[in-house]
């Protein structure tokens, strides 16, 4: 019988450089989303206090 030569894929393990780049990318993405969330909250709070200062809204319930 003839010996069969079959190419087998060998597992080389994780690439450290790829893992670092993936981690940095995910970290920057998550940080950007978190920062946008906080900017949105800050904008809404600023709008609330601006309207409160102008007298357009009130936090006191009017009694009838």
From TrEMBL:
Localization annotation: Mitochondrion inner membrane
Broad class of where this protein is predominantly found: mitochondrion
Keyword terms: Membrane, Mitochondrion, Mitochondrion inner membrane, Transmembrane, Transmembrane helix
Transmembrane segments annotated in the record for this chain: 20-36
Keyword Isomerase in record: no
A cellular component term, taken from the record's GO annotations: mitochondrial inner membrane
UniProt keyword annotation of Transmembrane helix present: yes
Family, as annotated: Belongs to the cytochrome c oxidase subunit 5C family.
PANTHER family found in the cross-reference section: CYTOCHROME C OXIDASE SUBUNIT 5C-2-RELATED, CYTOCHROME C OXIDASE SUBUNIT 5C-4-RELATED
Function: This protein is one of the nuclear-coded polypeptide chains of cytochrome c oxidase, the terminal oxidase in mitochondrial electron transport.
Name of the featured protein: Cytochrome c oxidase subunit 5C
